[in-house]
Amino acid sequence: MAFGVGLGNPVKQVGLQVSANVLDLSEFDLFSLSAVLHRYIGSSTSVAIGGENILISDEAQSDGSASYYVVVSRGLTRCNTLLNRRTMTSKLHYSIGVGNGRFSKKSPLDEARGKGSRGTAVFGNVSYELFDAFNVVADWNGVNLNAGAAKTFLINDTTPVSLTLGLADLTDYSGDGVRLIGGLGVGFLF
Hints:
single chain; 11-stranded antiparallel sheet; globular
């Protein structure tokens, strides 16, 4: 579970997103802090530099560690068939980046099972909007492949709610089998 805030204007200057993450839902006693600095550079392209788990409340209890990354994200808008006419945004988006930590290091369990210790350090995703704010997504996180679908509902003009369902660890490269994953996100604009 995470709680975050976004500050700034990534189109005019830069944007900063900071989140506090609950790492143990059974006890609510293990937390981390993550941050992303991002900038829109034009032509439906943005760049970001970030860190996940840059502060952990009790590193001895966590299986996570700090991970830092740089990523470029782009929406393809030059082709009319890839343009959402209602929102005038791209239906097809992709990101590619490089990072350390969780993007490049496998778990001790993967090592014990003979799956090696290193991931690719390169990560990326592709997302396509099938219809009104309903997207299918594929994601390589540096150590395994995930895929799913996401739908965003607008409660009002300033409150989007996103629901995501998917499958994680689709390859034998890491992990202990395919898992069902889900997420619920609520945004507030003020």
